[in-house]
Design a protein that fits this description.
single chain; globular; eight-stranded parallel β-barrel
């Protein structure tokens, strides 16, 4: 099955009525898409009460992709607010309990930063991370080109297979070492993740005050999405559950592009949440 959604549910205004409160946005979001990426978990390990509410607000078939906490992926370079890394990982795993108990956890996404390059100590850290996570399904996304250079490409793919990582395939600008190519490898797993970051080459590496708003400012045109249709159909044959999320939301384009891709693939989702009717 192909699950298509976006990252987060708070900023996609075109999905909601004018009177929708932030508290109820996920309920309405689930009337359009069968999956979502939880990005608040990247900035702080969320209390279980949040996931309890989110799982209650979505239909039984809905699935969550939960982004790993930034201390786990090395984005926060200072001291972590935990006594040890083991305690940090345990706290994060505890926060996943409502998703797991409701059978709504699709994937935990480990997205590593642009400075996380291909070297022995980083390979060993990836092994350690996977061991800490146990049997929880985890996807791996790189942001440094070295992992897919010709000299490392095959070994990187083999490593992910051996360590049972789900591949997070990226569509993103090709802008120096801090970006990775689109590697169409399913790894033969039960699950596969594709993330659309946009193709804003000039904004990708900028470190201005509003760099997050600039980096993901991009709208895919129909030709670009159509090119992906064939890739997706091929990958669908190689994996049982294919998750696709759009992260190009700086200009509010992610939801529109996600809905357009659903149309291009001819998907009609059943068991979505009822859509609210704006009567006035």
């Amino acid at each position: 099955m192909i699950y298509i959604g976006v990252t987060g549910w708070g900023d996609h205004d075109r999905l909601y009525g004018p009177h929708t409160s932030p508290r109820n946005k996920l309920k309405e979001y689930a009337g359009f898409f069968p999956t979502v990426e939880v990005d608040s978990s990247f900035y702080a390990i969320q209390p279980t009460k949040n996931a309890q509410k989110w799982t209650r607000d979505t239909p039984p078939s809905f699935r969550f992709i939960v982004k790993a906490y930034q201390g786990m992926t090395g984005h926060s370079r200072g001291d972590i607010p935990f006594e040890s890394k083991e305690q940090m990982f345990q706290g994060f795993k505890d926060s996943l309990t409502p998703y797991i108990e409701s059978e709504k956890l699709a994937i935990v996404l480990f997205q590593f930063p642009p400075w996380f390059d291909c070297k022995r100590e980083h390979v060993e850290y990836l092994r350690w991370c996977k061991k800490q996570m146990g049997d929880i399904p985890c996807a791996l996304e790189f942001r440094h080109q070295s992992w897919f250079r010709p000299s490392f490409y095959e070994r990187t793919i083999q490593f992910m297979k051996e360590e049972d990582w789900i591949h997070s395939i990226c569509d993103e600008p090709q802008s120096g070492e801090g970006s990775v190519p689109t590697v169409l490898e399913s790894l033969g797993k039960e699950k596969l993740l594709i993330r659309f970051h946009g193709r804003n080459v000039h904004g990708w590496q900028k470190r201005t005050e509003n760099w997050r708003e600039v980096r993901y400012l991009y709208r895919y045109n129909q030709n670009e999405l159509q090119q992906w249709v064939e890739h997706i159909k091929k990958l669908e044959k190689e994996t049982e559950h294919l998750y696709i999320v759009f992260n190009n939301n700086s200009g509010g384009d992610a939801a529109d592009n996600a809905l357009e891709l659903i149309d291009l693939l001819g998907i009609e989702y059943e068991n979505l949440a009822p859509r609210q009717l704006d009567l006035f």
